[in-house]
Amino acid sequence: MMHRIPELSEHFVYFNDDMILMRQTKPSDFFTKEGSPIIRGNWSSFESEKLIKRTPILLGFKKTKIKGYLGYKRTQDYTAKALGDKKKICLNHTPFSMRKSIITDFLINNETVFLNNIKSKFRHENLVMIQSIIAHLEVKENKKLLKKDYQLVRFDSAKKPLFWIKFRFFIHKMNSNTLFLNIQSLDLYSKNKIEFILNWLNKNDS
What we know:
The chain has helices spanning 51-58, 72-82, 100-109, 111-118, 130-141, 162-174, 191-203, and strands spanning 11-14, 19-21, 39-40, 42-44, 88-90, 96-99, 146-147, 152-155, 180-183. By secondary structure, the chain is an alpha/beta fold. The strands form 4 sheets. The chain has a 3-stranded mixed beta sheet, covered by helices on one side. Strands 1-6 form a two-stranded antiparallel sheet. Helix 6 (162-174) runs parallel beside helix 7 (191-203). The longest helix has 13 residues, at 162-174. It is globular and about 50 Å long.
């Protein structure tokens, strides 16, 4: 539905609510001089084809989930397959550059996709990811738009120890190319971890 936001710019950057800019950015971090979006991702096999994912299922330790939200990566699998592709562009939790006209044209020509995405209040197994659709469409037109470096520091679990969080921030300071921070469910982190993260961000505000 975001393509229907009133007065939305043709060129815009989509952020989830758990994404933070770690350094100053410029337009060229998100779009080319010609106005095409920079797509941060890598071509990848589907999750079901990866041996590390298949082995626990083949051994009976894990069941294949077929109902409900399939997760970030498998939703990208579903989207790529819906587009007829044999591999996916594996996206990560980074800001995502888009062109409104590309979204609008695709959904006008594929109305069933649009209706299927909005018919449920919650995420479900037949959901397609708009970012993934745009990534595939844009890269098919111009392979040079695909940038393999996510430029990302990501904290994906509140269970990680504090020393690991400190180490990741240290690596970020050493790597001037890192632009983005993603923290999954910060509200689930312990008080001392939250205090450290917020203090670090305040002291290193760029």
